[in-house]
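Structure in, sequence out. Go:
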């Protein structure tokens, strides 16, 4: 082929130059193919958070639909760090994975709620360095935000505002987040994402409609009554997939996911069917 081109007036210099360009193009193409072949897996933080709430209370190592492939990548990274045994790399975000992830968070210098074994965007990204990339990151925002004078994080505040906008009455919080002031709350308010809402001025229908609005934007929410514990009528709400949830609140998300009441007896959810909503979380609700 080169001879034919030379016979048509191509000089040796032009042929060598063309060959160099062709070779460079071939190298570039092979590099792209190699990059594609070695592309890092993608870990969906939303799905990992979902599994971290739903999986631990299970009696077995059942997987959360849609989440296990993402959990496995996290577990493989923990195993590579020497923090999780190979036998626990199974796609089930159970207590072993929580303990191992908490150890990873502590190794980064995190303490308290930041070392709760539940991924935050920074620790999850750091763990995946060279192993996976993170998509759909979830952040709480500021932990010192407020709603109606009660402390909440920014994510919770935005969720409450969205639910409030669906109603013709206002949400009044009787308890916020990041507080252990009320022993009857059993530690659910120790972290973020959890609030209690006063229903004193609401009719029965308004109470249930408020539960539905809260569930619609991504809360696990129930109307509590005095027969269930030492408390007045109120609505208890825990923000699904809040990275700052205390362990007791995460267990309530597990109950809600499986149609239970979030109380110690794990009874069936007593919310009337007309006021229920599909299981969701804030980021998924916003996309919809």
């Amino acid at each position: 082929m080169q001879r034919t081109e030379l016979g048509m007036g191509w000089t040796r210099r032009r042929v060598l130059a063309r060959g160099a360009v062709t070779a460079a193009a071939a190298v570039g193409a092979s590099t792209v193919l190699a990059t594609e072949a070695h592309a890092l897996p993608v870990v969906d933080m939303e799905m990992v958070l979902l599994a971290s709430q739903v999986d631990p209370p299970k009696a077995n190592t059942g997987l959360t639909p849609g989440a296990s492939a993402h959990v496995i990548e996290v577990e493989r990274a923990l195993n590579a760090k020497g923090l999780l045994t190979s036998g626990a790399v199974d796609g089930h975000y159970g207590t072993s994975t929580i303990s191992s992830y908490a150890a990873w968070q502590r190794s980064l210098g995190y303490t308290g709620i930041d070392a709760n074994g539940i991924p935050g965007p920074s620790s999850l990204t750091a763990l995946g360095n060279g192993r996976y990339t993170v998509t759909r990151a979830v952040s709480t925002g500021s932990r010192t935000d407020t709603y109606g004078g009660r402390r909440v994080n920014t994510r919770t505040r935005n969720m409450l505002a969205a639910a409030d906008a669906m109603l013709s009455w206002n949400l009044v919080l009787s308890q916020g987040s990041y507080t252990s002031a009320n022993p009857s709350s059993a530690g659910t308010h120790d972290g973020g994402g959890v609030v209690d809402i006063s229903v004193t001025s609401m009719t029965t229908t308004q109470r249930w409609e408020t539960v539905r609005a809260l569930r619609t934007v991504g809360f696990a929410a129930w109307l509590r009554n005095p027969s269930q514990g030492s408390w007045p009528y109120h609505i208890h709400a825990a923000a699904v997939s809040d990275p700052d949830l205390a362990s007791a609140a995460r267990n309530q998300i597990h109950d809600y996911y499986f149609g239970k009441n979030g109380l110690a007896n794990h009874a069936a959810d007593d919310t009337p069917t007309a006021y229920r909503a599909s299981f969701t979380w804030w980021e998924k609700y916003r996309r919809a």
